[in-house]
Amino acid sequence: MASSFSSALMASSSHSAMYTGEWEYDVFLCFRGDDTRHGFASHLMAALSDKQIKAFIDTMLRKTECIDELLSILQRSALSIVIFSENFADSPWCLDEVATIAQSMVKFGHRVLPVFYRVGWSDVAGDSGSYSITIDYKLKASSEDNKRWRDALKAVANCAGHTSQAIQIEAKLAKEIVEDVQKQLIDMSPSIKSNNLVGMGSRVLEIQRLLAMNSLDDTQIIGIWGMGGVGKTTLAKACYERLTSLMRKTKHRFVRNINENCEKHHGVEEIVSELYSRLLSESNISHVDLDISYRRALLSRLKVFIVLDDVETPLQLEQLLLGDVFNLPKLFAAGSRIIVTTRNKKVLQNALAKIYNVACLNDIESTQLFSLHAFKQHCPLVNWTEMSRLAISYCKGNPLALRVLGGTLFGEDKHYWQSFLSGLRRIQKPEIHDILRRSYNKLTVEEKKLFLDVACLLNGISRSRLIEYMDTVCPAAYAKVKDLIDKSLFMCISKKDGENIEVHGLLKEMAWNIVNEEPKLGKRSRLVDPEDIHKLLTTQKVKNWTKFVSNFFKGIEEMVLPRRKRRKVIDLLRTGNNALEGDRTTEGLSLDLSKANKMHLEANAFEGMDSLTFMKFWWPRDFEIEQKIHLPHSGLDSLPDRLRWLHWDAYPSKSLPWRFYPQHLVNLIIRHSPIKRCWEGFDQPMLVNLVVLDLSSCKNLTVVPNLSMSSSLEELRLQGCFSLVELPSHVQYLHKLITVDLRHCVNLERLPSRLDSNFLKHVWIQNCPKVMQCPEINSGELEELDLDGTPIRELPGAIYNVKQGGVLRLCGESITDFPAISRSLKEFRLCHTAIRDIYFNFPHLASSELLPIYDRLELVENCRLESLPRNLWNMAGQLVVEGSLLIESLPEISEPGCRSHKNGSDIHNMSSLNYLCLKKMGIKSLPSCVHKLDRLNSIELWYCERLESIPTNIHKLSQLLVLTLRGCRSIRSLPELPLRLLTLDVGGCKSLQALPSNIAKLSWGSVRFDDCPQLNETMVNFPVHVTLSRQSKVSLLYSGSEIPKWFAYKSVNDKDDSCVTVELSPSTCSSEQLMMKGITFGIVCSWDHWDGQVNMRCDCNINTTTIASWSSDRWFLDGDDTPSDKVFLWFDKNSSGKTKKRRGGEEGESWYMKYAGLTVSFWFYLQLPNAQDVNQLKNFKIKRCGVSLLY
């Protein structure tokens, strides 16, 4: 029934009610009075009233009135708010209200906003949640009411809503709900609804907030800024239509397409004349007439609401506002509002306007808008979802593109869709292309070059790196990058380590089309298509033949030849070597090697490419790298000397060409290469412009290039250079260094004594076992210092320079005391030290200050550590302690204390611990008051072999989702567990005799109880049956050598053990009988010597064609697991699996209906997370398998 509700909602969403402002009530409020009437519900009512939102509460309805009256009131209300609280399900009346609301959702498209107040979704809608338990045991409802209420609760709870767990301050929660109501009421308004506008509610509300309509004692300009086609004009129009009715005593005017009209009429004079003629109710007012003081006085007393659509330059805006752009109160009366839409942010910045940046639509909004135009409803038609997804992903949230593509595909059959979508990137829709191209056409020559470079070659690059790269050839690169951001051609995306520059997908495609307008391949400025690059680089073979012919004729030039033939020889010599296209003038190559075919290049493949400045041959994922480009044994003759960016993953030679002079190089990136040194010989080139040097995973590299003159170097990455012994001393003097990466340089011995750069942020010297001393670092910008796995002889002073919120990892037995790091860090890791106990001695910390808190504290393999401090639980958000067998007990958890902060204020030193991992320790129990760590969502106890018990109050940890007790051999029983627990792992608990008493009530996601010999077969099979019958996706692992008896289909021992054949139900059955509700999969498997993740997969085949596939969740298997047969089971309600689509995304009916009555085979196999581990699959053997189909 719940699924029928959701499907009905999808069908009815296209005719959901329209908000006309004539409803009797804006909101119907449903709540449990005893829980919230005098608390949260009253706060919410007050917040709604403050915004003039009229709400109906069910106390206005007499309980004696029938449910039909309630249905009538719901029809007279725009939307409903349902406040789910702790005792909500105790009231049959509340449950009846929810059932009626759910009925209205289906019948009338009624909108609902659920609020989870001090309860979770699983409490309300879960099959084992508190509401279900109340309905079953307390109300003892009839089977009809039970089903009706449960289905209604699920339908309402599945709507988008709010939860007090996310927003704990009630006033803030009420404010968020009211804003959501306002957005929905705006979305339901006629102007939005009738024009098929999507996602306008939140955007219009934000513009209203910027307009500050509650405070009309000033005059303001509000700017709407964004790329072409993103909906600036549409948004401005929606605001205009909504607000003109609220500003009745205001002169209002919407001036459209200003830039287009300026180009048509050669200026703004006609626009100015028409605008002010209408405002002053006169005719044909000229610009000169507006300078008359009388008219200026009239304007200054006039309150206006004006939209100026598509203003291109600051000068246009200044002329439109009669030169008073900075003095609007002089031009118009107080309370006036002006909205300006533009692609150029400078227009708004110059006017000191408040700016609203129009973002592209999200996935849900994009699907809705596309569907409105392609299917005339709010969602794709059944079996058209995948093809719709292809079209929607192409548009990247641009409303114009979504409307155009949807309208183009409306009414067409699937063959047309497939053909159109397969050639989508080669088909230019003028309605989209012309609007986007207009921004490009207005750029200067240098701006065009910068835009094409980023769109075609550098999309996603960090902003600082782009500016550094372009500065060498483009004056004022910083300003030009900012200008292109302001003109909505670049997007500036904030990342944790800075800002990245990205280009919208449609603009990127426009850039490729611009480049491809040049018909000759060798004349195109930038190439990214693997086939084009292959053609360009392999034409050298033809040119070699041409060169031979020309040289041959040159040798016989003095011979007597007919005049006509002699002229042909001379012409051939003059045209040079490239008889195909003339000189190759390509400036940039970007080749994704994962998409390229293998190619064999000649030694002179790059000869004559003098214009080439950018070359990037790259692999998107490190672990998939293979050799795609092959060179002669002697390597390349040369590379273009003008190269500024050279990135070549898996470069196949031992060195770069000796005829390559890299004086212009800014970025040199050669990874996963057999290169031994960058240049042979003693005469090493000076890399004077180098900013980035990345030679990661060059295992044969023995010598770092000469960097003595590389004063601009910022990144030095040598990770995984196994043969490198020394880092040159001149690296010390590189004063702009930001990153030094020496991880896994296992033979590295000698480092500079210090690093002088004041800009150093990241220093990674991890797993360098021969490095005994860390360089001295005085940088005040140090964010990460990683010496994990590097046995330093003495604690470096650099550890005290790590910034607040940084990362520090230390290793070595020379560390005997807990380092006195007074700053709070993101991560602090101590490994293989000689520390015996942890005490705090911070001489630089004032007595009134709190001790530092670490987001993650790791104490790993500190074998001499005997005890942990009492305030351990307040030190970290995530705590990992491993390999400290001498620790026999954990400190008790005291009540939250109260201490003074250094500023004099009192704060509660509450525990923020949310993750606890204890591995291979000597503890016998967790602290008795573990329930006080109420933020814990994961407890992992690995191989704590002396652990005997778990505190009984663990069930009070309401946030706990994961409990792992792997290899805890001494534990005999488990107490009741938290109801929200999703993952339980008791594998290897040899003494465990019973599972928790409340296991049937838990909402499992994955359960593991292998190698538990004391659990009898009944206890093992109990959670299998209970769990697989209820959840949407569940995984189970336990010891055994047989597939459970209740499996309908199993492998036959004398045939392939990894395959099961199944005869599907015949097509003569009804569609309801054919409808599959889920599939349970099972395999018996064994493995040897494996430590890592693995997941089970199953493909459904007809003959050799795969028609569907499924995958289990990943399991972590480690080398300590006892070698024995294990049973893996997983249940998936998605019985359709991942179906294989033909090109163009064709979809059809579910495979089990399409192939009803036929015999299919289910093939099982295992999958490892990384392709590099594929050879390890031989350690696994599938012995039996089975499937069970649930109809």
Automatic annotation (TrEMBL):
<protein>
    <recommendedName>
        <fullName>TIR domain-containing protein</fullName>
    </recommendedName>
</protein>
<dbReference type="InterPro" id="IPR058192">
    <property type="entry name" value="WHD_ROQ1-like"/>
</dbReference>
<dbReference type="InterPro" id="IPR035897">
    <property type="entry name" value="Toll_tir_struct_dom_sf"/>
</dbReference>
<keyword id="KW-0677">Repeat</keyword>
<dbReference type="Pfam" id="PF01582">
    <property type="entry name" value="TIR"/>
</dbReference>
<dbReference type="Pfam" id="PF00931">
    <property type="entry name" value="NB-ARC"/>
</dbReference>
<keyword id="KW-0433">Leucine-rich repeat</keyword>
<dbReference type="GO" id="GO:0043531">
    <property type="term" value="F:ADP binding"/>
</dbReference>
<dbReference type="InterPro" id="IPR000157">
    <property type="entry name" value="TIR_dom"/>
</dbReference>
<dbReference type="InterPro" id="IPR027417">
    <property type="entry name" value="P-loop_NTPase"/>
</dbReference>
<dbReference type="InterPro" id="IPR042197">
    <property type="entry name" value="Apaf_helical"/>
</dbReference>
<dbReference type="Pfam" id="PF23282">
    <property type="entry name" value="WHD_ROQ1"/>
</dbReference>
<dbReference type="InterPro" id="IPR002182">
    <property type="entry name" value="NB-ARC"/>
</dbReference>
<feature type="domain" description="TIR">
    <location>
        <begin position="23"/>
        <end position="185"/>
    </location>
</feature>
<dbReference type="InterPro" id="IPR032675">
    <property type="entry name" value="LRR_dom_sf"/>
</dbReference>
<dbReference type="GO" id="GO:0007165">
    <property type="term" value="P:signal transduction"/>
</dbReference>
<dbReference type="GO" id="GO:0006952">
    <property type="term" value="P:defense response"/>
</dbReference>
<dbReference type="InterPro" id="IPR044974">
    <property type="entry name" value="Disease_R_plants"/>
</dbReference>
<keyword id="KW-0520">NAD</keyword>
